[in-house]
Amino acid sequence: MLTKCNDGLMNRHAPEQDINEDDLQIHPPKQAAAGLKAVTVALERGYAQAGVARTVRSMLRVNQHDGFDCPGCAWPESITGRRSPAEFCENGAKAIAEESTTRTVGAEFWAKHSLADLEDKTEYWLGSQGRLSEPVVIRPGDTHYSPISWTDAFALIGEHINATTPDKCVFYTSGRTANETAFMYQLFARSLGTNNLPDCSNMCHESSGSALNPTIGIGKGTVSLEDIHHAELVLVVGQNPGTNHPRMLSALRDCKNNGGKIVAVNPLPEAGLLNFKDPQSLNGVIGGGTTIADEFLQIKVGGDLALFQALGHLLLEEEQRNPGTVVDHSFIEQQTEGFAAYKEARSVLDWAETERATGLTRAEITKAAEMMAASKATIICWALGLTQQPHSVDTLREIINLLLLQGNFGKRGAGACPVRGHSNVQGDRTMGIWEKPKESFLAALDKEFGFHMPRDHGYDSVETQHALEKGDVDVFVSMGGNFAAAGSDTAALEEGLKRAGLTVHISTKPNRAHVVHGETSLILPTLGRTDTDDKHPKGKQFLSVEDSMSVIHKTQGRLEPVSEHLLSEPVIVARMAQATLGDDHSVDWRSMAEDYDVIRDHISRVIPGFEDFNARVRTKNGFVLPNPPRDTRTFATDIGKGRFSVRPLEYLQAPPGHLILQTVRSHDQYNTTFYGLDDRYRGVSEGRRVILVHPDDLTELGFEDRDLVDVISTFAGTERRADKFRLIGYPTAKGCAAAYFPEANALVHRELVARESNTPGYKAMTVHFVKHVENGA
Hints:
Elements: E1 2-4, E2 10-12, E3 25-26, E4 33-34, H1 36-50, H2 52-59, H3 90-100, E5 104-105, H4 107-112, H5 115-118, H6 123-128, E6 131-132, E7 136-138, E8 146-147, H7 150-162, E9 169-173, H8 179-192, H9 206-216, H10 225-230, E10 233-237, H11 241-244, H12 248-257, E11 261-265, H13 271-274, E12 275-277, H14 282-286, E13 290-291, E14 295-297, H15 304-321, H16 329-335, E15 336-337, H17 339-345, H18 351-358, H19 362-374, E16 378-382, H20 392-405, E17 415-418, H21 425-430, H22 439-449, H23 461-469, E18 475-479, H24 483-486, H25 490-499, E19 502-507, H26 512-515, E20 520-525, E21 543-546, E22 551-555, H27 569-581, H28 589-594, H29 596-606, H30 613-616, E23 623-624, H31 628-631, E24 642-643, E25 659-664, E26 669-670, E27 673-674, E28 678-679, E29 684-685, E30 690-693, H32 695-701, E31 708-715, E32 718-729, E33 736-740, E34 765-771
Parallel strand pairs: 4-12, 5-6, 9-18, 10-11, 10-16, 11-14, 15-24, 16-17, 18-19, 19-20, 25-33, 30-32
Antiparallel strand pairs: 1-2, 3-29, 7-8, 7-20, 12-13, 21-22, 22-23, 25-34, 26-27, 28-29, 30-33, 31-32, 31-34
């Protein structure tokens, strides 16, 4: 059925049917990523959601100098070369289609669907309904959400916050939040007196920051996009760029064209690691594409620490055979500390245990070491495949050891590259979204706003889960995101959210967190990246974001919002603060909401690197934040040098009859949002409750391909269970398995976390299977 929208576009209603796992289809995995299929899928999704005209207008603006930043991943655009007219990937196009949709969710939807009805709906169904179009509330005893005015909504928030204590208020943040919003949001929380500022970074790259800050003095990557183009060797570890950061494939192709080599390290043979068919090039359309990985190391889940220790051992051996050819002694002597202890620790290696831990042969590891020894400019990239295990921080410090060993900092084509997922998760942390803020940041806030910020550390995401479960959270505010689906130990998390007195969700579309809400719950609809933000005394406003390479640039939507009742995120934060703190507070919230330049002026005086923010962000390519390892080959650690680390070998081991399970995204997914049901590179479609298992493991465990099973995880003597998953024979590493999140999040015990970072162990579950039996069978 067709409906006519406010700009004259014609569009279909949201789907009424939810996922039917009986419709599951399995095909052979693909051997190449992108190609013409990526183009056709992107256009189809855009037209279905937003119509032709709206889709074209948005696509021409995405990631352009005068447009908006893609609401998908944080991969950077070039600041030195020409940008493509189509500066986006397939999954970016899907994200834009989801946001620019003309489907709306208003009073009629909430009247039709009770909470009991929505309880069983999947993320796919909820997200497909469309954009939230007006604020709604549900109070104790209500069965449905119902409309509420903005004024009454903010008054309700102020009433609840003022009725409790700051330590019982939590302010969660999604990585989509822009810099200006994030700065206001953390200021609001700290104005109340709390550092309870968990964010999605706690659940993804917190391990990266925990490893990098003590070793190189900065929690961010140390490379530019151009560095990847000019690297002699790039290691892509624990990462699936074909689905999660598709534009990275273009950078890797350019590296290959410049003579560079790529080593891919991953438990799954992902299509994007094998071959890239660039739909914007002739070779990608009618040719064979570009082979990405010169070497593919199919490592066991959790075996990366063993691999990096072995590589260090082999590099030191080669240096001993050919002095001065591998190790950068001058750099080490002048800029690092701890090399002697590292050299001693890597002087011996148990090859039998290394092969057992990694699932790789000595010959495979030696070949990779030879490539590293020959390279004078190496970049190591990683993502969540390395950050979500108990020993993740130690693994990442071992990466830093390898980079320090060869002096791969502060020179072209070299450095550390944690690839962030969400579009501004790095910028949010820069703006102060962190439960453990540095004293220098708090002191700068004190000086700027004239009152004392709280110093006690707040809750991170996992600690928030514990606090919710204990009933220690009275008010939970979520700036974007979907905390209920993103967190681990799903059943306990959802019960905890229901214990909160008030949950506030600042969102663009319905999601699971809206269904498992507090005693009272508000859903506040906000503008998205693609929407124009022009309801201000000084006219249209713009925001800014930070990409994975520390570049700050503008983002300004141009599409007409689907509802007149949407407010921008800065306005929502300001009005929450005014309703709670009053207009006579020392922070002028109204001025910031009316003119975002005022926010940026505050930022420029608080955060180093943002001096003259308003002028610099208006330049064509924005500006790059300072980065000592990259800029000056120096390290702002407590010792003023780069730090070698020595930790014992550790890897994941499953007892007999068990496998190590990791969670992954499908190709039709971004974080907890499902764009569709086609994970086409892996050959899985129309269903999501699947477990990918090596055929040999299926045989050894007594199962067959397509068996329906219940999955049981074991941790610290306790079990978690997720029912009705289909086993799929798949060429993953032996001893390992993979399932989609958030469906498998229920299997992650909330105490299974990475040491130091407290990141949930989404890639560290010990599981076994039992055949599923229907009730009454």
